[in-house]
Amino acid sequence: MTSPSDQSSSADQPSSDSASLDPTSRNSAVHTEQLSSDSAPAAASTPQTVRTKPNRHFPFLSRHPWVLATALAETKKPASDKSAETAPSNDEPAAGAPEANRISQQVDLLDHDGNWIARGLANPASRLRLRLYSFSRDQPIDDAFFAQRIDEAVARRRLARSTDHTGVQESGSKLAEMGERLIFSESDRLSGLIVDRYADCLSVQFTAAALLPRGKFLIDQVLNACEKHGTPCRRVIARMDPATAKHEGVAADQVAEVESWSRGISPAANGSDAATDDSSPMVWYRHNDLKMGIDLRDGQKTGGYLDQQANHAEAARYMAGKRVLDICTYTGGFALAAAKAGASEVIGVDSSEKALEMARQNAEANSLSQVRFEKADCFDHLKNCAGRGETFDAVVLDPPRFAGSRRQVDAALRAYARLNMSAVDLLPPGGILVTCSCSGHVSRADFLNMLVDVGRKRQRDIVILQSRGPSPDHPCAVSCPESDYLKCVIAQVH
């Protein structure tokens, strides 16, 4: 699945049109103090306090971690300050809304009446002004706090990874070769931090500027937790993508400093092909029963799409002996799994030639000769297949995120409908449709209703065999519904 370069976890891309939505950047970037300091910022003895506007505190009582500037009340101003005469609207950040004096400052959130709600870290450069981490008044947000949260997150994966997708107990050596998400931001109560492990390599993505003053410390703690829980890692690549940096008010030189925290992997191209195997961003790992390679430096998100790992294996169970079309294949996840499961022919389509080259390498590494890859736009390819009268026994749709905000949901549903109707046109009665959505703002109910419309307009019956979510290493926080973002439907079409 190829997605725009600014795509990251739905849990970390709130949209700007709801109480817990996507922060937009200010005109100037904030320069964090001592960004790469070896010691984490000291906890403030008395955190600054901010209050919500009236009736804007309810999401935070439910432990939603995102506090926008639009939810914060205006501070009192001296009577001589004429600017206080103009009150801000409920839809705009209050002109006098309290801001922490520096990034990563601890701030206590109060309701409009002064009742304590939670404690978080501030970012005065972002409309997502405060990320909440603690809902206990006696709990400081310090080094010990983050070390414990990181250890708990990695330990949680050992619960989900006790068996593989077939139910077979995994050995320690097999687990060490695999890929998994170790930290999933809000779902692991660590808003702004995403960590994936590919064999002995960590891919660390920062999506919150408030965490950057502790960045090197956090990486050290993840390495310690990996060692403790049986998957030691020796290489790290640290990143913050440009879109996130813009939203968070992080300057380009600070992004470069984040990348300098990488260990054993070159964070940027050096113009030379003479890199050793150890310093190369190319990493090989075990993806279900496949040997897969990814580019940790230039790949999408944190390098790959581990959220679909279990779905790749499950969908492959329906593909034996079938002719399969995999749309938005990226590096070949669904396509290679289908070929491995015994599909007679597999065609993977993507708009990124770089992703397809990696997919071809993956096919060669697994000696899968019945799969080929083509560069094309997904909509155009489906239309051309129909024009040629082609049919497939199974079609897989794994497109990029179509809705980056709630305002885009209607347009996204129209795009999903168009894509799925084109796929259904290629399926004979009894054909298999695997259709996915990684748009967090498109609900599962909306997605299924879209399929109802597809069946009605094409006069086909769509029977759902499985309605799935992400792999178990991508948990969902009930207090942050945006973390429940991935839908994967396996259906039979008549």
Written overview of the protein:
The chain has 494 residues and is α/β, with parallel strands linked by helices. It has twelve helices and 18 strands. It has helices at 58-61, 143-160, 172-177, 215-228, 242-248, 252-259, 309-316, 333-340, 353-365, 378-387, 409-424, 444-458; strands spanning 48-51, 66-68, 106-110, 116-122, 128-134, 179-184, 193-198, 201-206, 235-239, 282-287, 290-295, 323-327, 345-350, 371-375, 394-397, 431-437, 462-468, 487-493. A hairpin with a 2-residue loop joins strand 7 (193-198) and strand 8. Mean pLDDT is 85; it is low at 2-13, 15-34, 77-100 and 270-276.
Name the shape in a single word: globular
The amount of helix comes to 25-40%
User: Number of helical segments?
Assistant: 12
Radius of gyration: 24 Å
- The helix-strand sequence is EHEEEEHHEEEHEHHEEHEHEHEHEHEHEE
Mean pLDDT: 85
Q: Distance between termini?
A: 27 Å
Instruction: Give the class from helix and strand content and strand pairing.
Output: alpha/beta
Strand element count:
18
Q: Tell me the strand order in the biggest sheet.
A: 14-13-12-15-16-18-17
Query: Can you summarize the main beta sheet?
Result: 7 strands, mixed
Q: How much of the residues is beta strand, in percent?
A: 15-25%
Residue stretches low in confidence (pLDDT < 50, at least 5 long) are: 2-13, 15-34, 77-100, 270-276
Give a quick summary of the entry.
26% of the residues lie in helices and 21% in strands. It has twelve helices and 18 strands.
